[in-house]
Amino acid sequence: ININFSYDPQKNVTIILGDNTYGKTTLLQAFNWCFYKTVNFDHNPKFLLNYELSEEMLNGSTNIVSVEIVIIHENTEYGIIRKQEYKKINGKTVLANEIPLKVWYKNEKGNQLSLDDSPETWINDILPKDLSTYFFFDTERVNSISHKENVTEAVKGLLGLSALSKTIEHLGTKNRKDSVIGKFQQELDTDNEQDSAEIEQKIQDNELKLQNIDEQIKETKKNKEKYENRKEELDKIIHANADTKRMQEDEKRLENEIKNNEKNLEENKTEIYNYFHRLTKAYFEKPLMKESLSYINTLNLKDDRISGLS
After folding, report:
1. Residue whose C-alpha is closest to residue 78's, from 148, 45, 41, 125
2. Of all residues in the chain, what percent are helix, strand and coil, respectively (each to 5)?
3. What class is the 180-298 domain?
């Protein structure tokens, strides 16, 4: 008998109907046993071999119970195979060998490769065991669903919310001093006012220095222009005056003064650049810091977990 399970996004429920003892529960338990090595039979849950087949076995003979499920997960085909061997000894059928779980997958070339790294963990990541009864719903055992534990955690894992939940727990709240946000809030509370006052004072001091340097530059430019004009006058006097030596000395002195003023001008420019370079970080940090603190204070960080899950 072939059963085609529905994977239509809008019609994704498959209902199996049949009379009692026709194998409905056995089919559901086959999924549970293959996935999780667990069954929910009323009789001995470890004995999976058909009773009629067990009675027909001869002493020393063996039979294997096996289930293979082929699924497609994230566009990759996987196969899950679980087997269990039974043997007839002294007229009694007993479990002889539990064969290890085997999981294979097909690579891009279509070759089957074995998945040897924690296959049980891989299966539980795809479909958590605590949610199995919701996906393989047995109406004869409907009461057992209400007693399932860890359903909330299983749903989180299936929806990929476990990592988010752990991240929120790690960050904590500002009221918890040992949490990340709590420590950050403490640093803001203890250091913010002092740091802000120091930066404010530094900015004011350096702004005053910038004003003084700017005035020095203006004065230096005026002196330079005055000396250049004086130099031109002396050049004319040198040519017209018989006292050439004195004029030349004056000219040389003025030239040196011009050079010194030019040097002072360059040094003042360099000093301005250096002051501005040192101030740039604090100058632009202050308004950004105020905006950041204002934004943080508007955040409504709640301690509640995801609404609707219990």
Report:
1. 125
2. 55, 15, 30
3. mainly alpha
